[in-house]
Specification:
This protein is an alpha+beta fold and 220 residues long. It has 7 helices and 7 strands. Strand 1 (45-51) and strand 2 (56-61) form a beta hairpin.
């Protein structure tokens, strides 16, 4: 029994050390500049970032370009062409975790372990109306060229058909996406990669929301 307790203590100690190193590296990754695409900057389009405790989504304007680019989401049940829609919410994540955890109360150990060790990925699209003026979230100004590059990368993430009967809000939908999700390649590294591909320096490696916040802070 003493040997078992000693082994468990070492296991928990190793897990704690890994988590501490991971969080330290995530902070550094947000502060270190990454490779950014050479796209002319500007202030033609405003986008937002919606931060949660573990996940960040894009908030995009429902203009003509965005509706056309996200047309694939219509087959997943998203009302892309609805006139009352003013914004789109777009995120990427682990298939089992992302499609079952509508709230944090729904999170299971099995889905979490699958996400940490490796899972297929999905893209989620939802819609929103007018955003209240009191709602505070980070906003970024992009040139038309930067926004086109951002939309192109989102579309390029799609890698399969929509998931039938999966959703949480009645207006959202999921489609199969490119790439494997794991602890080193999270939903937030995807956001950082898309931003860098649009010419925005979002940090070299951003696996956590905190990483992205540090990158935004560094950008001013």
């Amino acid at each position: 029994m003493r040997r078992l307790w000693r082994w468990m203590g070492r296991l928990f100690g190793a897990a704690f050390a890994f988590l501490a190193l991971f969080l330290m590296a995530a902070g550094v990754g947000g502060l270190v500049p990454g490779r950014v695409a050479d796209v002319p900057p500007g202030d033609d389009v405003e986008i937002g970032l919606l931060f949660g405790p573990i996940h960040v989504d894009f908030l995009l304007p429902a203009d003509r370009r965005t509706r056309a680019a996200l047309g694939f989401a219509g087959d997943a049940g998203v009302p892309v062409e609805e006139p009352l829609v003013e914004h789109f919410i777009v995120g990427w994540g682990a298939r089992q975790f992302y499609t079952t955890a509508g709230t944090y109360a729904d999170i299971t150990v099995a889905a979490t372990l699958r996400a940490v060790t490796g899972d297929a990925s999905v893209l989620r699209v939802d819609v929103a109306g007018a955003i209240p003026a009191s709602f505070d979230y980070p906003r970024l100004r992009l040139s038309a060229a930067q926004y086109e590059a951002l939309l192109d990368q989102i579309v390029a993430t799609v890698d399969g058909p929509p998931l039938v009967g999966v959703g949480f809000t009645g207006t959202d939908g999921f489609v199969e996406a490119e790439g494997r999700f794991h602890i080193l390649r999270t939903c937030n590294t995807w956001v950082g990669r898309v931003l860098r591909g649009a010419g925005i320096d979002a940090g070299a490696w951003t696996p956590t929301p905190y990483s992205l916040r540090l990158a935004l802070w560094r950008m001013g």
